[in-house]
């Protein structure tokens, strides 16, 4: 990496195309590692990553509406309905009709769903904690900043609402 100074003295970072490509490849391989442990757990249930994302955000927002989950996940209604149908049938998600609007369905995890979510998040938390510990505190702050800067504005707002 080459660091240059702007006229006002602030530091600007300039990366070559090769360095950026290397960063992209690092993200691909890191993602494989980040999802490997949960994938092994999900495989025992016959589930995929879509199930993981649904369980994660239903846990994050108990009682969330299906439409809100559609917005967060960025998937089609048909795709989400397939995932939810499986999770409901298998007793991991409870779907209740809205009290104000009977067309709405509100989703919560059952005890069984919370146990699965905990196993999945524990696996990813352990990997991330270990990586952060080895990389050091400055890397933690920089990593989060880079991720936030890569988000589209509307997704950054969703992310900030989750925090």
Overall CATH architecture of the domain at 46-134: Orthogonal Bundle
CATH first level of the domain at 46-134: which class?
Mainly Alpha
- The helix tally amounts to 7
| N→C terminal distance | 32 Å
Oligomer: single chain
Gross morphology: globular
The average pLDDT is 88
Explain how this protein is built.
The structure is a single chain. By secondary structure, the protein is an alpha+beta fold. It has a domain at 46-134: Orthogonal Bundle (Arc Repressor Mutant, subunit A). It is built from 7 helices and 5 strands. The strands form 2 sheets. Strands 3-5-4 form a 3-stranded antiparallel sheet. The chain is globular, with a radius of gyration of 19 Å.
Could you provide a short overview of the structure?
The protein is an alpha+beta fold. It is built from seven helices and five strands; from the N terminus they run E-E-H-H-E-H-H-E-E-H-H-H. The chain has a three-stranded antiparallel beta sheet. Strands 1-2 form a two-stranded antiparallel ribbon.
């Amino acid at each position: 990496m080459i660091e240059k100074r702007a006229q006002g003295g602030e530091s600007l970072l300039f990366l070559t195309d090769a360095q950026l490509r290397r960063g992209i490849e690092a993200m691909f391989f890191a993602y494989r590692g980040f999802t490997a442990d949960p994938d092994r757990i999900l495989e025992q249930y016959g589930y995929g990553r879509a199930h993981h994302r649904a369980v994660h955000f239903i846990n994050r927002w108990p009682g969330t509406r299906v439409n809100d989950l559609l917005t967060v996940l960025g998937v089609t209604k048909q795709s989400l309905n397939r995932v939810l149908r499986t999770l409901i049938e298998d007793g991991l998600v409870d779907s209740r009709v809205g009290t104000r609007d009977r067309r709405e369905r509100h989703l919560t995890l059952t005890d069984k769903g919370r146990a699965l979510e905990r196993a999945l998040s524990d696996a990813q938390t352990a990997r991330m904690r270990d990586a952060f510990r080895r990389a050091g505190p400055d890397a933690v702050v920089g990593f989060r900043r880079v991720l936030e800067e890569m988000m589209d504005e509307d997704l950054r707002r969703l992310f900030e609402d989750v925090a």
